[in-house]
Amino acid sequence: MKNVFVAAVLSVSFVAFSAEPELKPAQEEAKGKSDEALEESLKGLNEKCGTKIAAVKTDYENFKEADWSGTAFYSWCPTAIDAVTAMCADRPAYKKALGKKLTGISCLFAGVKPKDKKDGSNEYTLRNMSFEKGVFTFRIEKDESNISDNAKATFEKALN
User: What is the pTM for the complete model shown?
Assistant: First the structure.
């Protein structure tokens, strides 16, 4: 009886951790557009920075079409990645550091930190970017600005 219980618990655990969230049609479309845009940026990053990142972690189940209507939402994350790629191409010391330390990228629609009334043009975007434990995380929101410059600033701050 113990063996049956253990097998059942393991089966349920495997299903719980291996299943991807079910996406709505608009989320599937968003994923397709984003994945296509990310592919080229990620390839350039790996070539220029010497990283070996296979995929960008995203949470398309949190994508809300109404929030992003009329925007090129799929360009936010590649813009940040391309900025990092440019750092590697133009700044050898950062290329060396990023090649060793950058192990993952997450571009997420959930968990965006709120805008503050005192925010200037960059503070809001910077607050939603981080580089911790080898992972660059960008929490994406349509009102963010200067994505390229802020991605570079995030890495400069974290690496110095």
Answer: 0.85
